Amino acid sequence: MGTAISGATGSPARPGVRRRSSAVALLRAAHFPPTVAVTVVVALLAVADGKTPGVTAVVTAAVLTGQLTIGWGNDLVDADRDRQVGRLDKPLAGGRLSESTVRVSLFVAAVACVALSFGAGWRSALVHLFLGVAAGHAYNLLAKRTAWSWLPYAVAFGSLPAVVTLAGGAPHWPPWWMAATAATLGVGAHFLNVLPDLDDDRATGISGLPHRFGATRARVAATVLLVAGSAVAVLGPSGAPAAWALVVLGLVTALAVVALVGRGRLPFHAALVIALLDVALLVVVGT
């Protein structure tokens, strides 16, 4: 990685500045916002399930390290593609981070992920490592180029509630509606996530299911999936839904209309809000 230059004097940046710059680049290469989002969801699910602070911390850290390996693996696999389409905002493609640094970081995170996963309990570890983390890497290495690109998202997200409920003492399987809501949310997030990069992806040979749908149909599919996830979260549990949950479902329906008929960036943002409401329903209804 080249030496950073200060704009005022042209002198080399101080070592502390370089280290901070490298750390930021490493976090960006890990797809930090979605990594944090998934980790926060797991922490909230663990608290909602009544896990002890210790178990909550361990299972959350296990998922965080697993997500880091998936993010870094994605950028390593995509580095050449990103350079081809001029994605110099990516740390690897832009030369702000070396591949060796990312590979070492991925290895360290992978070792930590295995140790932490088994620290949370062997049942949780098997689900996390062989469904969640494995599905993420399967997407990076192969599935993203096929019509089955949605499947790793369904498996990885759908297994998250079980990773939590099987952790610690008194392990148990989550109710079916939690897994179904999480899986539907994951596939909807997949369709939503690729929308900004459809053209760049096609130019470099990526042809997942959203790419085959095209931008308009992919946006519709994302919206339908996210609304379906909301409906399952509200109507899936036994007994009559709470009044507030029905109000949220009505709000989701209104946002879906905006996502389907709106213009510009409004549909994307409306669908994103639906995804956030799905997460809230998943956590709160499950308590």
**CATH class of the largest domain, please?**
Mainly Alpha
| Portion in beta strands | under 5%
Stretches with pLDDT under 50, minimum 5 residues: 1-13
Biggest pleated-sheet summary: none
Q: Given the C-alpha coordinates, what overall shape results?
A: globular
Give the total of beta strands.
0
Indicate the radius of gyration in whole angstroms. Answer: 20 Å
Output the number of helix runs. 12
- The CATH architecture of the largest domain can be named as Orthogonal Bundle
Helix and strand content put the structural class at mainly alpha
Order of helices and strands: HHHHHHHHHHHH
Helix content: over 70%
**What name goes with the CATH superfamily of the largest domain?**
UbiA prenyltransferase
Distance between the termini: 48 Å
Q: What is the average per-residue confidence, as pLDDT, rounded to a whole number?
A: 88
In total, the number of domains comes to 2
CATH topology (fold) name of the largest domain: Tetracycline Repressor, domain 2
Which key phrases capture this entry?
287 residues, Tetracycline Repressor, domain 2, Four Helix Bundle (Hemerythrin (Met), subunit A), 2 domains, 12 helices, 74% helix, disordered N terminus
Describe the structure.
The protein has helices at residues 15-29, 32-48, 53-84, 99-119, 122-141, 150-165, 176-194, 198-203, 209-213, 215-235, 243-261, 266-285. The chain has 287 residues and is mainly α. The radius of gyration is 20 Å and the shape is globular. It has two domains: 13-155, Orthogonal Bundle (Tetracycline Repressor, domain 2), CATH 1.10.357; 175-287, Four Helix Bundle (Hemerythrin (Met), subunit A). The longest helix is centred in the N-terminal third of the chain and has 32 residues, at 53-84. The model is unreliable at 1-13 (pLDDT under 50). Helix content is 74%, strand content 0%.
